[in-house]
Write a structure and sequence with these properties.
The chain is an alpha+beta fold. Helices cover 21% and strands 29% of the residues. A hairpin with a 3-residue loop joins strand 2 (21-24) and strand 3.
């Protein structure tokens, strides 16, 4: 199996021992969970809308660095600090997938890195 770590300055650097994303077999792009951290390292915490938007923009930047579009995502997983955020996150997330939304799981968790309320990971096929 071939596996190539991805790094782009247009998305936040990894905050631990992991890659921003990995391309496997030359066509599968696995994006690590993205929190609302800007490429400059600023945490966007004003609202759940702002947090979700930053997560999606990070994913978009990672995919673009490989010539892949959001429409090529086949699966996402959304982690929420509370299911009370579900409807709002759904609304923002839906704006990124006007047609043909990918398969998705959404779960509430006990905690997320840096105390954020949302983390999103994605798998795309180039």
């Amino acid at each position: 199996m071939t596996r190539q770590p991805i790094f782009t300055e247009k998305a936040p650097a990894a905050i631990g021992p992991y890659s921003q994303a990995v391309v496997a077999e030359g066509r599968f792009v696995f994006c690590s969970g993205q929190i609302p951290l800007t490429p400059a390292g600023e945490l966007k915490m004003a609202s759940i809308e702002e947090q979700t938007t930053q997560c999606m923009e990070n994913i978009k930047a990672l995919l673009r660095s490989q010539g892949v579009a959001l429409g090529q995502i086949v699966k996402t997983t959304i982690y929420l600090s509370s299911m009370d955020h579900f409807a709002t996150v759904n609304e923002v997330y839906g704006k990124y997938f006007q047609t043909g939304a990918p398969a998705r799981s959404t779960v509430a968790v006990a905690g997320l890195p840096k105390g954020v309320d949302v983390e999103i990971e994605a798998i795309a096929v180039a």
